[in-house]
Specification:
Elements (H helix, E strand, L loop, with lengths): L6 E8 L1 H4 L7 H11 L2 E9 L3 H14 L2 E5 L10 H8 L4 E3 L1 H10 L7 H4 L3 E3 L3 E3 L8 E4 L2 E4 L3 H8 L13 E8 L2 H14 L4 E9 L2 E10 L2 H17 L3 E3 L2
Helix pairs in contact: 2-7, 3-4, 8-9
């Protein structure tokens, strides 16, 4: 069990379709928001192609420096779905039919529908733990601290809740957003001064364009609500002094 309250994770998006721009990645947001809610901070996100050696090397690196690694994509029935096989090699485990997964999909599909292509989805690393899929039947899996999820966003979202009892998180990461009708250059120095006074809290500044006007959202993130409250007061003070308008987004 992870005793340190500072728990971290990496997200690994696997798929040529993401790198080519044909498919937009929304899974990073879903996983990151869910992890933050249970006290796990995302350290980094990587997007890599469906190349076995790249998957193996990246997974082996990330699992050594993070408490958890979440992969998405590459566990479907097609020829380029090679994540499960690559994970097997990363952990030096046999790649074989998972009997429980086979039974799940055999019961899920009608007679004659569980064909050779779909049976590819039950090949996994030996003794992998299943991640149940309430949407389309085909389970994901985890080996040690590496959790492998499908790339389809709606299916991935439906599977996250079932993982909560397997993830040991720290304190939930809280956030507060202040949106302003201004530009970053107008608040840069003041915001830097606030950050210098609140080094144990994360402050992000994000420009936006809404209703034909520019704005900036300041996002405060911490495990401690009192630190967020203190920092927020400091920001609102210089906003008032500069006569900057606070807006809703």
């Amino acid at each position: 069990m992870i005793k340190n309250t500072k728990v971290n994770a990496a997200i690994l998006i696997i798929g040529n379709e993401i790198l080519s721009g044909r498919t937009q990645d929304t899974n990073t947001m879903s996983i990151a928001l869910w992890l933050n809610s249970i006290g796990v901070k995302v350290n980094e996100v990587r997007v890599i192609p469906d190349i076995e050696s790249t998957i193996i090397n990246t997974v082996n690196h990330l699992r050594q420096i993070n408490d958890y690694v979440f992969t998405t994509g590459g566990i479907g029935p097609t020829h380029d779905d090679i994540t499960a096989q690559s994970i097997s090699k990363a952990f030096k485990l046999e790649y074989e039919i998972h009997k429980e997964a086979f039974k799940i999909l055999e019961d899920y599909y009608k007679v004659g529908e569980f064909n050779e292509g779909r049976q590819k989805m039950v090949w996994m690393p030996r003794n992998a733990n299943l991640i149940l899929n309430p949407t389309s039947g085909a389970p994901g899996f985890n080996v040690e601290n590496v959790f492998c999820l499908p790339g389809v966003p709606s299916i991935l979202k439906s599977m996250l809740g079932g993982l909560k009892n397997r993830i040991v998180g720290g304190n939930p990461i809280l956030s507060h957003t202040i949106s302003l009708r201004t530009v970053e250059s107008e608040i840069a120095k003041s915001l830097t001064d606030v950050q210098d006074n609140n080094k144990d809290l994360e402050i992000g500044s994000y420009p936006f364009f809404q209703a034909g006007k520019l704005g900036v959202s300041i996002v405060l993130r911490s495990e401690d609500q009192s630190k967020i409250n203190k920092c927020s007061k400091e920001i609102l003070k210089f906003i008032e002094e500069k006569k900057i308008k606070v807006v809703d987004r």
